Amino acid sequence: MEPLLSAEHITICYNGIPAVQDVSFQVEPGEILGIVGESGSGKSTLIRGVMGLLGEGGMITGGDIWYKGENLKDMPEKKFRKYQGPEIGMVFQDCKAAFCPVRTVGAQIYEALSAHEKITKKEAESRAREIMEKIGLTDYKRVLRSYPFELSGGMNQRAGICAAMILKPALLLADEPTSALDVTVQKQVAEELLLMRREYHTAMILVTHNMGLVKKTADKILVLKDGRVREYGKTADVLENPRDLYTKKLMDSVLSLKRIRSN
Ligand SMILES: Nc1ncnc2c1ncn2[C@@H]1O[C@H](COP(=O)(O)OP(=O)(O)O)[C@@H](O)[C@H]1O
Ligand SMILES: [Mg+2]
């Protein structure tokens, strides 16, 4: 089977200075890859590179990113933009900030959909309803009518998941999608992402510093430090048998947090 996404020896620089170096990984259809590493290790840069959203000064300077057999690196911008959403979706760390503050969630979800397909508002609402009800937004009408500031953090994250999932992307990139939430809501949102994978067979790259979340959700794990790969493999193998002291320390920090909480 051909992988859905194959990153080969990726190097990404900001203004000539490398932030990610020689990173390779693969994501199979329906698979979840967890990317972990301390702050500044290059996690966001890596997935923004895949999404084509590096911004000013950021550039992929080496390697290739194959998606369904096509090299995203060489893809003309116009074609790449058509992929952003229906092929590769993104859930941000802070979805409230990613939404436009002066338009309702419903208007923005409709806009995202109608940019890629011909659809009426009514059809869009029923598609949003289907997903929102699955992820615990039972009062979907209120959510669609609301402005982002009128919703809680957890509801904004769910609305962000809905906005990404409504296009049924084959690959969902999620950059610390739960880290701005409190612990119980974190758990729920993580469960909901897993549910989306079960329902739609969506592959995901999940960036997080939460080892507990990775353990629970990821099939494979990639550990980054200073922009380089420290470990890469099946989650159980990496967590049970870390080759690297850095991974052990990352894991210990999670375990000791748990111990403090349960005491
Ligand atoms: N827009 C940017 N311009 C210049 N340097 C950046 C930019 N974004 C990130 N960096 C640098 O790239 C490195 C990796 O950052 P980042 O990908 O945000 O790490 P992480 O998401 O793991 O915290 C850091 O050294 C950071 O300072
Ligand atoms: Mg980051």
- CATH-level-2 architecture: 3-Layer(aba) Sandwich
CATH superfamily: P-loop containing nucleotide triphosphate hydrolases
Bound molecules: adenosine-5'-diphosphate, magnesium ion
Order of strands across the biggest sheet? 6-7-8-3-9-10
Major sheet description: 6 strands, mixed
The number of domains: 1
Describe the structure.
The protein has a single domain (5-262), classed as 3-Layer(aba) Sandwich (Rossmann fold). It contains eleven helices and ten strands. The protein has helices spanning 43-51, 77-83, 95-98, 105-114, 121-134, 140-145, 153-165, 183-200, 211-217, 235-240, 245-262, and strands at residues 5-14, 17-27, 32-36, 58-67, 70-71, 88-91, 171-175, 203-207, 220-225, 228-234. α4 packs across α5 (121-134). The N and C termini lie far apart (47 Å). The structure holds adenosine-5'-diphosphate and magnesium ion (MG). Adenosine-5'-diphosphate (ADP) is lined by residues 14, 19, 37, 39-45, 55, 57-58.
